[in-house]
Amino acid sequence: MRGKVHICAALLILIALTGSALLTHTTNSSNGKPVVVTTTSVLASIVRDLAGNEVIVEVIASPSICPAHYGVKPSDVYKLKGADLILRQGFEPWLEDLVKASGSKAPIVTIKGPWNTPELLKGKYVAVANALEKYLGINVSAKLRKCLKAIDDTSTWLKEYAKEKGFVGTPVVVMQWQKAYVSFLGFKVVATYPPPEKVTPSLYEEIIKNATEGKALLVIDNLQSGTELGKKIAEEIGGVEVALTNFPGTAPGLNNMTEVMKHNAELLAQALYFAKLKKSPTELGKLYREVSNYEHEAKLWESAFIASAVLNAVLIASVAVLAAKLRRR
Question: Which of 87, 138, 177, 265 matches a 20 to 30 Å C-alpha distance to 248?
Answer without folding.
Answer: 138
